[in-house]
Design a protein that fits this description.
D-Maltodextrin-Binding Protein, domain 2, 7-stranded mixed sheet, 5-stranded mixed sheet
Length: 210
C-alpha cells in the first residue's frame, strides 16, 4: 500500500491509464493528472461524458482505473458496484471556479432586454451558485435579478463548452475550462476542497468468471 498524509493507494502495478469525467478542462482531468504525479507514474487520462460511462470502461479493462469525485451525488453507486473495487483515495482541491460568460456586452444586452439567461452548472456546486451570481452583479449589473434558467450539466467543463458554443449564456466552471474556451470571469472565486476516490476492475470477479 502506498500512503502519505494526502493519499492512500493499494499497490497495483498493472494500472496504465485512468478513466474519469470530461471533456477537456474538467476538474476530474486535473485531479487525474495530480494522481499521476502523486504516485510518480505516468497515466493516460481517458475522458468520458459521465462517470458511469468511465466505470463501464474500467469494468472491462484491468489496466485502467476509475477516478470519481467524492462530491458526486451518485458516488455511492461506485462503492456498491460488484464489478469494481476500491483502490484508493486522495485529497485534491481543483482549480478555482467562477461564474463566467463568453461576452460581457452581449450578456448585459440580454438582461436589459429581459431575455432569459441560461446558466449551466454541474449539480455538485449548485448550492453555491446563488452567492456567485450575486457577486457577479459588480461586473454585470442586474444579473441576480434577471430571468435566470439553471441547467444541470454532466460536468462544469461541458457547461463551459456550451457557453463557448452559444448554447448557454453563463456557466460555473473552473479556470482550466475558462481558459480553454476563452470565457470571461464574472464572479468572485469559489474554492472547493474535496477528496477523490479511485476504483479498479474487480480482479476477484474477473478470475471467478475466467
Amino acid at each position: 500500500m502506498i500512503s502519505n498524509n494526502n493519499f492512500w493507494l493499494r499497490e497495483n502495478p498493472h494500472i496504465t491509464s485512468i478513466a474519469t469525467l470530461g471533456p477537456d478542462g474538467s476538474s476530474s482531468q486535473a485531479a487525474a493528472k495530480h494522481l499521476s504525479s502523486l504516485i510518480e507514474k505516468p497515466l493516460e487520462v481517458l475522458l468520458f461524458d459521465t462517470f458511469e460511462l468511465a466505470s463501464q470502461h474500467v469494468e472491462k479493462n484491468t489496466s485502467c482505473a476509475l477516478l470519481v469525485a467524492n462530491a458526486y451525488e451518485r458516488v455511492d453507486n461506485f462503492y456498491m458496484n460488484a464489478d469494481t473495487m476500491l483502490l484508493g483515495s486522495f485529497y485534491y482541491a481543483p482549480p478555482a471556479y467562477y461564474l463566467s460568460c463568453k461576452d460581457v456586452a452581449s450578456l448585459k444586452a440580454k438582461i436589459s432586454e429581459q431575455q432569459p439567461i441560461r446558466i449551466a452548472t454541474h449539480h455538485a456546486p449548485l448550492s453555491r451558485l446563488n452567492g456567485l451570481i450575486k457577486s457577479a452583479d459588480d461586473v454585470v449589473q442586474g444579473l441576480s435579478k434577471a430571468n435566470l434558467e439553471i441547467e444541470i450539466t454532466d460536468s462544469t467543463s461541458k457547461g463551459a463548452r456550451q457557453v463557448a458554443s452559444n448554447i448557454s449564456d453563463c456557466c460555473l466552471a473552473n479556470v482550466d475550462a475558462l481558459d480553454l474556451y476563452h470565457l470571461h470571469r464574472l464572479s468572485s472565486p469559489l474554492n472547493i476542497e474535496m477528496t477523490w476516490v479511485v476504483f479498479s476492475c474487480n480482479q476477484v470477479k474477473v478470475e471467478e468468471i475466467a
